[in-house]
Amino acid sequence: MDIPVIYEDDWLCIVDKPSGLLSIPTPKKEKRTLTSILRMHPCHRLDRETSGLIIYAKGKSIQKKMMDEFKQKKVLKTYIAFVQGKLPRNQGEINSSIEGHRAITKYKIIEARRNFSVAEVMPLTGRTNQIRIHFRNIGHPIVGETKFAFRRDFKLKAKRLCLHAKALEFMHPVTGKNVSLSIDLAKDLKEFLEKHAAKDT
Q1: What gap in Å lies between CA 174 and CA 12, rounded to an integer?
Q2: How does pLDDT run across 70-104, given as a tens digit for each residue?
Q3: Catalytic positions, please?
Q4: 3-state SS class at 78
């Protein structure tokens, strides 16, 4: 499997995870995961269906330092999400707790297409499935969502969850330098946009 390396140094390796590959094993103990392929230490995770940037550490101590940055909200993450329908506002903040924990997601609509919107999404907290749950909560689940919404409730279908981890920015835990990375949309998401090119009228 082709896993593009976007950034690498003596301590960290940041790759573009393909959709369909688990970051780390679930309780089912899957053998084939991104972690088993890379043989490094994950600093965070992406859902199986989510594509995009994910950070791995080359040692346990670096992993801990990087995970501490995540806990202290020092890592800026930006996603692109295709969300069902047209949102009432072009930008906003979703502020609703998840399993009793505070959770905040900022978003900005980049483009309104027929039946869906392309959103730039910045989670300010790091709850599990936060982006997926938050957009479901406001009645605009992510296109291709099957876990937190019923596929049959929406005309627009997709082969996978249309969520992509596009950009990362953080202070390198060893060098102290600012690391800022951004990648293109995954190929299948670009093809989805081409197939559904009609703009909202």
Answers
A1: 10
A2: 999 999 999 999 999 999 999 999 999 999 999 99
A3: 47
A4: strand
